[in-house]
């Protein structure tokens, strides 16, 4: 976990503080950058060794699963292991603290559980979760076997477990490219941004739809949109304020002023 920087040295843009103080309904949209300071490689970097030559979009796809389910299952198991070994960062903790005293909904693209492990409630995991595998045939939920991945298994193809109900292959609980988002998760995220006064867009490149369309929906519904990201993104033009800060430095500094 990163050591929270001395928040008094971080200058939070005045309009962002004012918008946060004046908002009664806040939505925080998060992407892989939210977990970067916890040491979790962003979606496009979580490929070492065995998987380094594969395009993540191929691994995170029904076609990739059909082609080599051992390779895909091994990658997801390994990513779950990386998350298990990581800690929520000061940004995750700041959002959990903010939820204790304001109406703050979190809708995330992330398949990790760091928001929850920081004590936050997540309204919507629009791309699913590493920790909710299910049967690719009958859909029954499965448990990710708690045996932590041994070093020997790291970087390996791992045969997916068989469904105890129907014998089908248990698949990762992530939403793959070309798959529709879970209806209730998407509807919750969309309804929340339509009702929000303030929407923070934290740590996402704004490339993947339909999630990347949420800032525009928020703006058209009258919300103030603030981007927290060290660099320009595909959704920066939807933001009223673009705060070039990181999640683990910016969010604690903002929440400390509310
Ligand atoms: C669907 C789960 C339809 C898996 C993921 C052409 C045009 C438009 C759209 C499409 C198109 N062709 C196809 C589509 C649709 C497609 C899509 O959007 N493709 C993109 C690539 C163009 N979308 C889909 O397929 C979706 N489904 O549309 O269904 C449909 C409708 C009806 C019936 C059937 C189908 C499903 C998309 C879900 C894909 N699954 N993840 C897994 O994780 O393994 S998406 C994957 O990318 C991850 O979830 C990741 O979260 C997500 C987005 O990435 P980001 O979170 O933004 O992360 P990224 O690394 O890109 O950026 C990190 C950012 O953080 C950067 O900006 C960086 O500056 C910043 N940062 C870094 N450090 C920090 C930081 N910020 C703050 N603090 C820091 N410290
Ligand atoms: Zn089954």
Task: Describe this entry's structure for a reader.
By secondary structure, this protein is an alpha/beta fold. The chain folds into two domains: 162 residues, Rossmann fold (3-Layer(aba) Sandwich); 83 residues, 2-Layer Sandwich (SIR2/SIRT2 'Small Domain'). Helix content is 31%, strand content 12%. It contains nine helices and eight strands. The protein has a six-stranded parallel sheet, with helices on both faces. The protein has a two-stranded antiparallel ribbon with strand order 4-5. The protein is globular and about 55 Å long. The two termini are 24 Å apart. The structure holds ligand BV8 and zinc ion.
Concise account of the structure shown:
This protein has 258 residues and is of the alpha/beta class. The protein is 31% helix and 12% strand. The chain has two domains: 1-39 and 87-131 and 181-258, TPP-binding domain (Rossmann fold); 41-85 and 134-171, SIR2/SIRT2 'Small Domain'.
What is the annotated CATH architecture of the largest domain? 3-Layer(aba) Sandwich
Mean pLDDT: 91
Q: What number of structural domains do the residues give?
A: 2
Q: According to CATH, what is the topology of the largest domain?
A: Rossmann fold
Order of strands in the sheet with most strands: 3-2-1-6-7-8
Report how far the terminal alpha carbons are from each other.
Answer: 24 Å
- Work out the strand percent: 5-15%
Strand runs, count = 8
Characterize the largest beta sheet: strand count, sense, and whether it forms a barrel.
Answer: 6 strands, parallel
Detail the poorly predicted runs: none
CATH superfamily of the largest domain: TPP-binding domain
- Bound molecule kinds, no repeats: ligand BV8, zinc ion
Structural class: alpha/beta
Helix content: 25-40%
- Number of helical regions: 9
């Amino acid at each position: 976990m990163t050591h929270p920087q001395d928040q008094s040295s971080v200058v939070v843009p005045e309009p962002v503080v004012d918008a946060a103080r004046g908002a009664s309904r806040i939505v925080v949209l998060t992407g892989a950058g939210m977990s970067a300071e916890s040491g979790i490689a962003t979606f496009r970097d979580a490929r070492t060794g065995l998987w380094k030559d594969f395009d993540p979009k191929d691994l995170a796809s029904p076609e990739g699963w059909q082609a080599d389910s051992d390779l895909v299952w091994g990658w997801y198991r390994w990513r779950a292991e990386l998350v298990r070994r990581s800690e929520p960062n000061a940004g995750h903790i700041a959002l959990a603290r903010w939820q204790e005293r304001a109406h703050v909904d979190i809708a995330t693209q992330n398949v990790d559980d760091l928001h929850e492990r920081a004590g936050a409630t997540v309204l919507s995991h629009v791309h699913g979760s590493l920790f909710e595998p299910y049967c690719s045939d009958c859909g029954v939920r499965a448990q990710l076997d708690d045996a932590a991945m041994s070093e020997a298994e790291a970087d390996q193809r791992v045969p997916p477990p068989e469904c105890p109900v129907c014998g089908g292959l248990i698949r990762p609980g992530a939403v793959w490219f070309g798959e529709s988002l879970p209806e209730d998760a998407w509807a919750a995220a969309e309804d929340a941004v339509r009702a929000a006064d303030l929407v923070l867009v934290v740590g996402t490149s704004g490339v993947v739809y339909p999630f990347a369309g949420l800032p525009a929906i928020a703006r058209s519904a009258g919300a103030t949109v603030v981007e927290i990201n060290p660099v320009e993104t595909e959704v920066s033009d939807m933001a009223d304020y673009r705060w070039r800060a990181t999640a683990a430095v910016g969010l604690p500094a903002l929440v400390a002023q509310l």
